[in-house]
Structures are given as C-alpha cells and as structure tokens.
Amino acid sequence: MKKLWIWIVKLFGWKYDCPASVEERPELKRAVYIMAPHTSLYDFFLGASCIWHMGVEARFFMKDSFFNFFTTPILKRCGVIPVDRGNIKNNLVGMAVDFFRKEKNFVMIVTPEGTRKFVKRWKRGFYEIATQAQVPVILTYIDFKTRHMGVGPTFYPTGDFSADIKEIMKFYQDKNARHPEMFNKQANL
After folding, report:
1. What does the DSSP 8-state code read for residue 22?
2. Beta strands in 92-160 (DSSP E)
3. How far is the C-alpha of 54 from the C-alpha of 94, rounded, in Å?
4. How many CB atoms lie under 10 A from the CB of residue 17?
5. pLDDT of the residue at 136
C-alpha cells in the first residue's frame, strides 16, 4: 500500500528531496521528525509518502476522531496512533519517549503547529520528546509552490527552546504551504 501511495504522489508531479535510504544518514533511523507547514489534510499524506520513500517505518499521533470502522485498519497499518487531544492527562510526550526507550530504531513524526489552522506559536511537544529521549530533530518539509518535499537538516536540541526554535524556524522561511495564510512563518520568533 505504501509503495502504491508513493507512486500516486509521484504521478501528481511531486518530487522527493531526501536520501533514497536512511543508510546515507544514520541519524534518520532514530529521531523526532517535524513536518511543516501543516495547513491541510493533504500534508499528512504527502509527508508520510516522503518518509516511506526513504524506507522509514514511522509513528504518528492523530486525533482519534479520524478513526472509524473503515479508516482504523488503514491508519494503524500506516503507523498512526489514535489520541484524545482533548484529554490533557494523556501524556503524549511520555508515551513517545517510552517508544524510544523500548525500540532501537524508532521515528516519531510530529506536526509542531498542532493543527491545520493558523497558530501564533508552535507546540513544544516535539522538542520535549527529542530532549527527553535524547534524539535529534529532523526538519522535514512540504512546499506546495515547488511541489517538492523532503528531509532537511538534523537539529540537536540544546535545552534552550527559545533559542533553538528560532534556528529551526529559519529553515521554514522559504517553504510554501498549501494555504499560505494559515502558515505563520513568524511563529515563536
């Protein structure tokens, strides 16, 4: 199914700017990937195809309302973990860190905007997961203007979120969202 999806994405003219295999960049095997911009549901499907293109088996958190009789088998096969975003006690950071503790090679993909709507600030869960699990953050992107998506630099958190998020945001300044008015390039700056 994943190969079929990659083929469909390529058929629609999208290009991948990423290694053909994680063997070229070993840090890609154990990391928190952030995917931005995230302004439409298409972003999930495009971003997932980019990760699958490299042969990475990744996990994603997704709002449980997307799960039903028809979608559950497909989403679970794609590595999606249903979560109740309205429950402040669900401890998603702790859940993700536990995955990293249990598995040698593990990748968690997070959309730091947390929603497809305009946000003033990115959520810092991705940063907390990476810091607590002691893994790097991989900056990945989707650019609707150029129809390219890919894997950018590896970022190692320093523990200073305010300084680090400014460096991370610099990477996304030239990326173009499907809905540009919904992507805040000045978030956290």
Report:
1. G
2. 107-110, 137-143, 148-155
3. 27
4. 14
5. 97
